[in-house]
């Protein structure tokens, strides 16, 4: 059996002054075509401009196959590209990647940053404020960075962000990046969504979720209406209001007539929710509604042309501040693990009942057998 060709080393510099450079480091159990699938889930213009040699069956309508020792090049958009795979070693320098890295992809995109640093109290769940202390990315670079972090989390890899100029003999006139290494925790992605062309009525959906957790409650009943506040329709709505008392009473009478007519018509249910109280672990909710804006990976499926039904299974942690820390407390991690197991079981049960596709909170599709 032929041995795979050795990967070329990471080049020292590939950017210009207006560009940013980032590295996506992955373990050995990741196939190159998995990167393409995740990119297609986020970027419309994804295409191989140079196809890696270990993807001989790839469709190359506009690109070409890589030559010996040449890496592939995946265009994410007009201005951003991902090149690789490379060996996890630089060409005469140490790229500073974590142990267990088997291959690395070089990502170049426009350098677009806010002029001011992120507020210190805004939370930094993914470590981006730490990676970009002078100003967070926005526009194209923000889209690329968000995808890189999500891809590393999904594939068990890491990212080294903002490395432009770090190893260049001449920085070329642009600022040297911070080069912060992030290893996104795969367990931090808890929420799942089932997309289907089947609408389960509230009672049927409740039975499905209740089969997973007996404390599931159909949350369709609100608090009893207590009527308008005292003085409504009689007192001015704000100081200086010029409406007369007669005009005000006529306006509210017309609003009452409209509300009465609406209440006398047939009830149209376009969404509902099912909640599970987990006590100290927070809440899990299944939120059901029609969806017109769908993940990119679903838009070519024939059954979503008119929209789809979304079953969003969401965990609400007990401490939101703790949940938005890059390194949350041990109590949060324990609650998150238990909640994630429940979210996965609810998603699988709803998929068994309604079919369709399952996506994670980054809009990457998940095989139901993996839940």
Summarize the structure.
With 371 residues, this protein is of the alpha+beta class.
Q: Could you describe the 3D structure shown?
A:
The structure is a single chain. The chain is α+β, with helices and mostly antiparallel strands. An 8-stranded mixed beta sheet has the order 3-2-4-5-6-1-7-8, with helices on one face. A 7-stranded antiparallel beta sheet has the order 10-11-12-13-9-14-15. The protein has 2 domains: 19-183, no CATH class; 192-220 and 269-370. The protein has helices spanning 32-40, 128-131, 139-155, 202-212, 245-264, 320-323, 330-354; strands at residues 19-26, 47-51, 64-65, 72-75, 81-86, 103-110, 158-161, 180-182, 192-196, 216-218, 271-277, 283-291, 308-316, 357-360, 365-366. It starts with 18 loop residues before the first strand and ends in a 5-residue tail after the last strand. Helix 4 (202-212) packs across helix 7 (330-354).
Features:
371 residues; alpha+beta; 2 domains; 8-stranded mixed β-sheet; 7-stranded antiparallel β-sheet; 7 helices; 15 strands; 24% helix
Query: Percent helix among the residues?
Result: 10-25%
Beta-strand proportion:
15-25%
Strand order of the largest sheet: 3-2-4-5-6-1-7-8
Class per helix and strand makeup: alpha+beta
Q: Give the low-confidence spans.
A: none
How would you spell out the order of helices and strands?
A: EHEEEEEHHEEEHEHEEEHHEE
Query: What's the helix count?
Result: 7
- Shape, please? globular
What is the overall pLDDT average? 89
Termini separation: 35 Å
**Beta strands, count:** 15
How big is the Rg? Answer: 26 Å
How many domains, as an integer? 2
Please describe the biggest sheet, giving its number of strands, its sense, and whether it closes into a barrel.
8 strands, mixed
């Amino acid at each position: 059996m032929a041995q795979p060709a050795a990967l070329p080393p990471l080049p020292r510099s590939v950017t210009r002054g207006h560009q940013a450079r980032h590295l996506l480091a992955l373990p050995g159990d990741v196939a190159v075509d998995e990167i393409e699938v995740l990119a297609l889930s986020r970027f419309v213009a994804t295409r191989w401009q140079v196809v890696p040699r270990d993807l001989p069956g790839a469709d190359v309508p506009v690109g070409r196959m890589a030559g010996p020792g040449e890496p592939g090049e995946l265009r994410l958009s007009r201005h951003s590209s991902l090149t690789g795979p490379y060996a996890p070693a630089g060409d005469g320098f140490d790229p500073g990647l974590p142990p267990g890295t088997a291959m690395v992809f070089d990502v170049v995109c426009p350098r677009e940053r806010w002029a001011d640093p992120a507020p210190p109290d805004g939370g930094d769940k993914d470590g981006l404020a730490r990676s970009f202390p002078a100003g967070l990315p926005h526009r194209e670079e923000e889209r690329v960075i968000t995808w890189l972090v999500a891809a590393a989390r999904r594939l068990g890899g890491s990212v080294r962000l903002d490395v432009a100029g770090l190893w260049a003999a001449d920085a070329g006139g642009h600022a040297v990046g911070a080069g912060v290494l992030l290893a996104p925790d795969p367990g931090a992605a808890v929420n799942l969504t089932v997309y289907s062309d089947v609408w389960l009525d509230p009672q049927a959906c409740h039975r499905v979720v209740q089969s997973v957790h007996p404390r599931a409650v159909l949350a369709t009943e609100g608090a009893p209406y207590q009527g308008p506040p005292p003085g409504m329709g009689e007192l001015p709505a704000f100081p200086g209001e010029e409406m007369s008392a007669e005009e005000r009473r006529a306006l509210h009478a017309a609003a009452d007539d409209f509300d009465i007519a609406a209440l006398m018509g047939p009830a149209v249910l376009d969404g509902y929710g099912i909640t599970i109280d987990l006590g100290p672990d927070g809440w899990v909710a299944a939120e059901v509604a029609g969806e017109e804006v769908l993940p990119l990976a679903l838009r070519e499926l024939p059954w979503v042309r008119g929209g789809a039904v979304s079953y969003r299974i969401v965990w609400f942690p007990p401490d939101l501040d703790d949940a938005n820390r890059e390194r949350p407390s041990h109590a949060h991690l324990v609650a998150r693990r238990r909640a994630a197991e429940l979210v996965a079981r609810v998603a699988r049960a709803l998929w068994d009942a309604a079919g369709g596709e399952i996506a994670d909170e980054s809009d990457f599709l998940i095989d139901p057998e993996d839940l």
